[in-house]
């Protein structure tokens, strides 16, 4: 940051935050990361925002991460009612149900998989193009594992994360 830009931030901003991006990053080179800010008082619009993203822009090859099993199940129902081909994957499901959901997503029977962090590690699904974080995870390591489901093996991918207007500290 040049001295001129630093002076401008000192004059124009209240409590500015510096965000440093290191060339030594933990995410794939082919990953395009996008962050959608949710303004204070608009937290209740999160489900509608995700539904709009999925129906309008990313209706296929998408993983939607939620914070809780209850929210994963809720979004599974909501997106199904919107006519999307969706499966859910979380810890309340039996192993058989998890494997069936995963198989349906991999073979294209389902286009969207709503999941919790149970799906953030160890899954290799080459067709995943987009990862949407309905809520940001509690730490950077979980974020890296979630977005690591796309842009694998030199391919391109996208992550979209919805967050409050104040970014969490681990993003910096």
Characterization of the model:
The model has no long low-confidence stretch (mean pLDDT 85). The chain has a single domain (31-171), classed as 3-Layer(aba) Sandwich (Rossmann fold). It has helices spanning 3-12, 46-57, 69-81, 95-106, 140-147; strands at residues 31-38, 62-65, 86-89, 112-115, 130-133, 157-164. The chain is of the alpha/beta class and 172 residues long.
Summarize the structure.
The chain is an alpha/beta fold.
SSE diagram, text form:
Elements: H1 3-12, E1 31-38, H2 46-57, E2 62-65, H3 69-81, E3 86-89, H4 95-106, E4 112-115, E5 130-133, H5 140-147, E6 157-164
Parallel strand pairs: 1-6, 2-4, 2-5, 3-4, 5-6
Key features of this structure:
hydrolase, Rossmann fold, alpha/beta, 5 helices, helicase, nucleotide-binding, 6-stranded parallel beta sheet, RNA helicase activity, Helicase C-terminal domain-containing protein, 19% strand, 172 residues
Helix % is: 25-40%
Cα end-to-end separation: 15 Å
Q: Count up the domains.
A: 1
Secondary-structure element order, as H and E? HEHEHEHEEHE
Strand pairing plus helix content: what structural class?
alpha/beta
CATH C-level class = Alpha Beta
Low-confidence spans: none
Query: Roughly how many Å is the radius of gyration?
Result: 17 Å
- Relevant CATH superfamily: P-loop containing nucleotide triphosphate hydrolases
Quantity of strands, as a count: 6
From the 3D structure, determine the CATH topology.
Answer: Rossmann fold
How do the strands of the widest beta sheet line up side by side?
A: 1-6-5-2-4-3
CATH architecture: 3-Layer(aba) Sandwich
What share of the residues does DSSP label as strand, in percent?
15-25%
Number of helices: 5
Outline: globular
Mean pLDDT: 85
Largest sheet: 6 strands, parallel
GO molecular function: ATP binding; hydrolase activity; RNA helicase activity
Domain Helicase C-terminal: 53-172
InterPro entries: DEAD_box_RNA_helicase (IPR050079), Helicase_C-like (IPR001650), P-loop_NTPase (IPR027417)
Protein name: Helicase C-terminal domain-containing protein
């Amino acid at each position: 940051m040049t001295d001129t830009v630093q002076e401008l931030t000192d004059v124009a901003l209240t409590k500015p935050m510096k965000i440093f991006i290191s060339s030594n990053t933990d995410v794939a080179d082919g990953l395009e990361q996008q962050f959608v800010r949710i303004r204070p008082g608009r937290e209740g619009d999160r489900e509608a925002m995700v539904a709009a993203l999925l129906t309008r822009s990313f209706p296929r090859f998408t993983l939607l991460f939620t914070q809780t099993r209850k929210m994963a199940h809720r979004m599974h129902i909501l997106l199904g009612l919107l006519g999307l081909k969706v499966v859910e994957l979380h810890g309340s499901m039996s192993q058989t149900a998890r494997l069936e959901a995963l198989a349906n997503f991999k073979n294209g029977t389902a286009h969207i998989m709503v999941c919790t962090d149970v799906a953030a590690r160890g899954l290799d699904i080459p067709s995943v193009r987009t990862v949407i974080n309905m809520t940001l995870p509690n730490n950077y390591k979980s974020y890296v594992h979630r977005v690591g489901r796309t842009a694998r093996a030199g391919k391109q991918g996208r992550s979209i994360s919805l967050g409050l207007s104040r970014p969490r500290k681990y993003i910096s």
